[in-house]
Amino acid sequence: MVLGIESSCDETGAGIVQGGRLLAHVVASSMDEHARFGGVVPEIAARAHLHAFNPVVRRALDEAGLRPGDLDAVAVTTGPGLSGALQVGLAGAKTLAYALGVPLYGVHHLAGHVAADTLEHGPLPDPCVVLIVSGGHTSLLLVRDLVREPILHLGDTLDDAAGECFDKVARVFGLPYPGGPAIDRAARGGDPKAVAFPRPLRAAGGQDAYAFSFSGLKTAAARWAEEHRRRGAVLPVADGAASLQEAVADVLTRKAVAACREYGVKTLVVVGGVAANSRVRDLAQRRCASAGIALRVPSMTLCTDNGAMIAAIGDLLVRSGAEPAPFDVTVDPSAPLAYAALNPVAA
Ligand code: KG4
Ligand code: ZN
Predict the structure, then answer these.
(1) Among residues 223, 226, 266, which one has the least CA distance to residue 128?
(2) Which of 16, 91, 136, 239 has the least CB density, counted as fewest CB within 10 Å?
């Protein structure tokens, strides 16, 4: 019975997993508190985690019908993320683990996103290609045994993450924070062919074949909006949103499917907040179907940040006999993704 704690950004999550089975999944978000600033304010996020930690853990235990003493291990995100936010989650998780006398496991946030899918669709096939698309990261990975083998990066973003591109362009379009869901909603009434936004690195070869770049696309979308404003014209937000979403979905899914083909992999897993995007899901489905690739995407509530995905890694680590974190484990706000377990200690 593993409790997972997530607090790397603006969501306080607690989840409980046993033997690959999801028993509880509770999330409190401080998103509304950041909305008027147009982005996550680290100090506000950290304070919100402090307030939410106990109630969220208690609700998770209630949902699973458990008492704290029933827990066998605690897993917690140790990075990457906002330093203060991570520290609140880690302090809480350490306290619980110490008080209960159970082992603590430090978990890489992005590996958690990958594991989220196992809670609905069972163990990951070995190997699989994973596309991680979140607010801070965009990576194409070759995953073997998620908790035993190193995670191979086929490509990463050279600049902005896909979610960051949505969030920043949404702001320029006058849409509310968080931008990704707002772009998705606005795009429903728009024409994806209305604006010919660039498809960055679409045809790149060599070293950049699976690399991404979204900062030029972000700039192109901002210029397009500014051009309308300069002329005093009404901004066709729906068309802009649909066209932006199309460009992002096109590049992401094209490269992901190409990677599956090149490496002879039969399963693509798409995870992270941007995997909640309707066009990304739809285009991935179509392209995988025509390439004979099985597509796995977690349902919306497991795509965005949550504690269940951290518990899922914890559960895998426990079952693989992994070494728990030392008690002086700390956080690593900018940890690169190499292994699912992340147990940094202060130098
Ligand atoms: O994985 P996540 O919840 O947090 C991070 O680890 O970053 O991802 C958050 C990102 C944000 O950029 C948000 O705008 C984006 O995911 N997002 C979406 C959608 N829902 C969330 N982007 C596009 N379409 C959506 N429906
Ligand atoms: Zn995330």
Answers:
(1) 266
(2) 91
CA pair distance 296, 294, nearest whole angstrom: 7
**What is the pLDDT at residue 110?**
96
The structure tokens 């291990």 sit at 73
6, 12, 166, 252, best to mutate for ligand 1 pocket (most atoms within 8 Å of CB): 166
Q: What pLDDT digit, counting tens, does each position of 200-220 carry?
A: 888 778 888 999 999 999 999
Model confidence band, residue 36 (pLDDT cutoffs 50, 70, 90): confident
Angle at 48 between CA 46 and CA 50, to 5 degrees: 75
Among 12, 304, 305, 334, the mutation site with the greatest number of ligand 1 atoms within 8 A of its Cβ is: 304
Please tell me the residue having the least CA distance from ligand 1 atom 8: 273
Q: What is the mean pLDDT of the chain?
A: 96
Q: Which domains does the chain have, with CATH numbers?
A: 2-114+303-320 (3.30.420.40), 125-297 (3.30.420.40)
Inform me whether the pLDDT recorded for 346 exceeds 90. Answer: no
- pTM check: above 0.85: yes
Residue by residue, DSSP assigns 261-284 as HHHT--EEEEESGGGG-HHHHHHH
Count of Cβ atoms closer than 10 Å to residue 125 Cβ: 14
Residues in contact with ligand 1 (CB, 6 Å cut-off): 9, 134-136, 163, 166-167, 178-181, 183-184, 272-274, 276-277, 304-305
pLDDT in tens, 65-106: 999 999 999 999 999 999 999 999 999 999 999 999 999 999
Cross-strand bridge partners of residue 267: 294
Comparing CA positions, the residue from 243, 276, 270 lying closest to residue 257 is 270
